[in-house]
Model the fold of this input.
Amino acid sequence: MSDHEASSLDGIHMLEGLSPDVTQALVKACVWRRYSDHEQIIDRQSESTDVFFVIDGHVRVVNYSLSGKEITLEDLGPGSHFGELSALDGQPRSASVMALDSSLIAALPQERFTSLLQENAIISFRVLRALAAIVRNSTDRIMDLSTLAANNCVQADLLR
Done:
């Protein structure tokens, strides 16, 4: 799939049901970039506030322990989005994101994203559901780390 052919947001789950005019305006508002295998897309604590859509390829959301160990939070594929936390609160990034393979990513500026949320209740609701899933997943991980022995934590992660 060439980048020119892929310059569409049609497969993005969060944006399903928007009118073609609104979708086309979002396409034009995005900055489109292809990332290579293992290239960093955003760095934890960076000040960027864009929301990103995975058009093609796969990305990994990670954090690093104090000892430098990589902790995978989530793998995302085509149709997914990330970066909404910083777009909503203007705070630095809470995790790093890297491409797992050649990935086409569309970056939507914060101002356009917040306007989209204000103008479209269904999109706002989808973002709220995604944030709720992040909270639930984080809560589960915190409980596991706080209450389970190390080998049981590994087993819980594998089951997840």
